[in-house]
Amino acid sequence: MAGIYIHIPFCKQACHYCDFHFSTNLNRSEEMIQMINRELLLRKDYLPEKDTIKSIYFGGGTPSLLSQSQLDSVLNTIHKNFTLDIEELTIETNPDDLSQEKLKSLKHLGFDRLSIGIQSFQEDILKFYNRAHKASESLQAISLAKDAGFSMLSIDLIYGFPSPDHKKWEKDLEIAINQDPGHISSYCLTVEPKTALGNWVAKGKFRPATEDFAAEQFEILQAAMQSAGYVQYEISNFGKEGHFAIHNTNYWRGIPYLGVGPSAHSFDGKERGANISNNNKYIESLNAYKPPFEIDYLSHEDLVNEYILTSLRTIWGTDLHYLLQTYHVDLFLVKSSMIQKLIQEKLLEVNNTSLILTAKGKLLADSIASALFI
Fold it and tell me: What is the pLDDT of residues 156-171, one digit of tens each?
């Protein structure tokens, strides 16, 4: 199986923390959709021939800004040119876009999963982030989505906003859990250089939370999710049984996917690559029928280490048998002393043939993965 990711590089306004590729100028949105369709046609043979498309994910940016006809155009191109057996069709949305009419349109197009970018239910934090919606719109959007028949909902939250205590974060979690979305993705507020937030930090106008403060909020998140019946099936993702994200799970488990649109990444099982992160250059390149895609050739070690990095983040862990069968690497032998050390420190445990992070280990996921790299 495989997936298709469509990057829609448009937003109403720039969030102060975001360094994803997007533009607030929608003047060329129609051209962009035409070129995304063209890229789909030009790269339809990118994925292994045997692979059937199981999931489609519209991300960005803000895909919910697109009209029904624009979304329909891209979906039609996919349906006509790929072998499909769709298990999940996701679109990222913002609360202020989700009117009854919009939700009816998305349902009509076949979307069965919404990822709603809420980030916080606190008005002052939303204003600081420069989000386009208010907290009341978030609650209304969730309610309208359920009324429209969307049973697969995911909401995004951000933790690590500097505060005197954890009360606002605990309140965000309480409100989110009470909405019963079934899936919650939560990410730490990070300071990226080419953002408004990064600029404020560089000029001394904003002091981010300490690592210890953010770690405490992560532990509060874990406890709240577990208490509410959510499974932490990936470091930043929590879902009730039957609500895990199929598309994103496939990323973490090394399943091939085709990424289309400016800045989109792709993986065919052996090599990675990315499109140019520039809307005008993307359109110009495809006007000349040349996909602006640059391959990142991966060595044998790269493939092994990438699998360790992504799989270790999940509830299923790093499968030692898979590594041996696929890459002929006996990690338990190669990294025996390090694995034993991590087990003794209660950061890692072995379950059948898999290495799995403990709750304590999840706080140090990247450094633990790095220690296991070959």
Answer: 999 999 999 999 999 9
User: What is each CA distance from 220 to 171, 215, 226, 291, in whole angstroms?
Assistant: 11, 9, 10, 45
The whole-angstrom separation of Cα 162 and Cα 278 is 33
| Tens digits of residue pLDDT in 256-284 | 999 999 999 999 988 999 999 999 999 99
Phi, psi (rounded to 5 degrees) for 292:
-80, 60
Handedness of CA 193, 134, 164, 171 (dihedral sign): negative
Helix (H, G, I), strand (E, B), or coil: what is residue 22? coil
| Cα(283)–Cα(292) distance, integer angstroms | 9
- Does the pTM exceed 0.90? yes
How does DSSP classify residue 358?
Answer: -
Contact 16, 270 (CB under 8 A): no
- Cα separations (Å) of 193 from 13, 17, 62, 197, 207? 18, 9, 22, 8, 14
CA angle 71, 14, 18 (to 5 degrees): 95
Cα dist from 95 to 119, 237, 238, whole Å: 10, 20, 20
Which long-range CB contacts under 8 A does 78-81 form with residues at least 24 apart? 78/4, 78/40, 78/53, 81/40, 81/41, 81/44
Nearest to 233 by CA among 117, 373, 339, 362: 362
Chain position carrying tokens 């021939």:
49
- Where residue 50 falls among pLDDT bands split at 50, 70, 90? confident
Tell me the residue type at 193: P
Count of residues for the chain? Answer: 374
Q: Strands 348-351 and 152-159: what pairing?
A: unpaired
Q: In the block, which residue shows the tokens 């041996």?
A: 324
The b/e string for 113-130 (b: 16+ C-beta within 10 A; e otherwise) is: bbbbbbbbbbeebbeebe
Reduce the DSSP state of residue 242 to 3 states and report it.
coil
Alpha helices (runs of H) in 47-165, residue ranges in sequence order: 68-81, 100-109, 123-129, 135-147
- 338 is written with which tokens? 């390090």
Considering only CA atoms, which of 129, 195, 135 is closest in space to residue 161? 129
